[in-house]
Hints:
- By secondary structure, this protein is of the alpha/beta class.
- It contains three helices and nine strands.
- The strands form two sheets. Strands 2, 3, 6, 7, 8 and 9 form a six-stranded mixed β-sheet that branches. Strands 1-5-4 form a three-stranded mixed β-sheet, with helices on one face.
- A hairpin with a 5-residue loop joins strand 8 (145-155) and strand 9.
- The chain starts with a helix and ends in a 7-residue tail after the last helix.
Amino acid sequence: xxxxxxxxxxxxxxxxxxxxxxxxxxxxxxxxxxxxxxxxxxxxxxxxxxxxxxxxxxxxxxxxxxxxxxxxxxxxxxxxxxxxxxxxxxxxxxxxxxxxxxxxxxxxxxxxxxxxxxxxxxxxxxxxxxxxxxxxxxxxxxxxxxxxxxxxxxxxxxxxxxxxxxxxxxxxxxxxxxxxxxxxxxxxxxxxxxxxxxxxxxxxxxxxxxxxxx
Length: 214
């Protein structure tokens, strides 16, 4: 009888130990550190002049991204078929929304005070004179280079395309391989897209024709 009791007590102790280890493991998982990130307006150098011949109203239609980029976890490709994802690092908001807001901030920093920049969609009579449509097709990191493949177009009155381009914008990851450096570099690359759109529009105004091939 005593042997049975000792075996029963030992079994209870083993069960309690297993339960305790399980709870500790669960707490360890739940206490994992997560970081949320946002995009910011790119730095504008003092030498960078405000462009002229810009429209009085400029709009940014909500940015679209490739489906595999539209994830809560920060995700990029290796330049081929393999996708990389940062497990504990998330976007603070959906990536298309962050890109749209950051583009508005970039454009506002680069245009003169007489131009108004807003995000769409708009009711018909409130539509800006020029609207930017932007699709981010891929974001890759290849040999410490961040590469962003972007297709964009600018539509004027009557929705005619006046400028459009499909281009890969690149910038070196200079400091380290951290997620924070990745996001900071991505913000700077996104600013380069804003610069390209404004410069293309200015050239269009100067030449008075479409610059699709420039």
